[in-house]
Specification:
The structure is a single chain. The protein is α+β, with helices and mostly antiparallel strands. Strands 1, 2, 3, 4, 5, 6, 7, 8 and 9 form a nine-stranded mixed beta sheet that branches. It contains seven helices and nine strands, in the order ββαββαβαβαβββααα.
């Protein structure tokens, strides 16, 4: 039986109109993000090593989350990668940033790009990279900071290439993208720490809304030729916030966690990623069972 803050997978919560804009990763000013009445997707680029969800309804094999107003998809085709790269380059160029490294085409293993769609239109994208021998983008400026976590036996992950089309997204979509990235990073890959390089102007937003903290001094990011700082988020902390607040839309918090997916929506996403898993009653048990199931495949 579902509790009052749960919805069936594939359904949306009450339509919200957000009054506060969501900053993109490096933009020098905020872009307004208002929830539309159509669906969105999520995108990713990982060619051969990306895990693609099994065939789903309407042949939406890349669909991770479908609601009445948007959908999130894992980018898995050439067409999707082109669209995602185009959106990132367009938004970066509009801020006067370099766009040479804005593509989501890459041979790095364990990199996932998600796209948010309204109908068939891509309106947002986020890329997640799990640490490997190739390292992370942030190693260019902050390798010593990242190595401190690696030396403790932690597995880092990185959020990058976060971009939204102007006037077409919302905090709820932003939250959905981060929640799905969290499931891939912490639940599927057992990453313990998330990092993101952002424009210092947006540091307070990520601190307040998600709980990030600064661990690197301000430098100039060579990929976009813009100021950047490195932020860190403990994924155990993130999981605890999701457990206590996700889906509680009426809860008055400065945090964005009440806009994260409900438990039933979260379970639906993980079932698409690992459809043979049996859902358990608590998030902690669910995550543990998922890891064990993956280890046997």
């Amino acid at each position: 039986m579902l509790t009052s803050n749960q919805t069936q997978p594939g359904t949306s919560r009450k339509t919200l109109r957000q009054t506060h804009p969501i900053p993109d990763q490096y933009s020098s000013n905020y872009m307004a993000f208002e929830r539309t009445a159509e669906p969105l997707p999520a995108l990713q680029y990982r060619p051969s090593q990306n895990w693609i969800p099994p065939t789903d309804r309407a042949a939406q094999t890349d669909c991770l989350l479908q609601t009445d107003s948007y959908s999130i998809h894992l980018v898995s085709t050439l067409k999707q990668r082109i669209k995602a790269s185009t959106l990132i380059k367009r938004m970066y160029a509009s801020r006067g940033y370099q766009t040479d490294s804005a593509s989501v085409f890459s041979a790095i293993p364990f990199q996932y790009t998600y796209e948010a769609r309204c109908g068939q239109q891509i309106i947002g994208t986020l890329t997640l990279t799990i640490d490997s021998n190739n390292g992370l983008l942030a190693d260019t400026l902050y390798k010593s900071e990242l190595d401190q976590f690696r030396e403790q036996g932690h597995k880092p992950c990185e959020v990058s290439k976060l971009a939204f089309a102007p006037n077409s997204s919302s905090k709820e979509i932003f939250a959905a993208l981060f929640h799905i990235a969290y499931l891939y990073a912490h639940v599927l890959h057992d990453a313990q720490d998330a990092f993101i390089e952002i424009n210092p102007r947006h540091m307070s937003f990520y601190r307040r809304m998600l709980g990030f903290c600064q661990i690197g001094q301000q430098q100039t990011c060579p990929r976009v030729n813009a100021p950047a700082v490195l932020l860190h988020l403990d994924l155990e902390y993130m999981g605890a916030q999701i457990t206590s607040m996700a889906g509680q839309l009426k809860r008055r918090e400065r945090s964005i966690y009440p806009l994260f997916l409900t438990r039933s929506e979260e379970e639906g996403v993980i079932q698409r990623i690992q459809p043979k898993k049996t859902i358990t009653h608590t998030r902690r048990e669910f995550y543990t069972d998922t890891r064990l199931s993956l280890a046997k495949t």
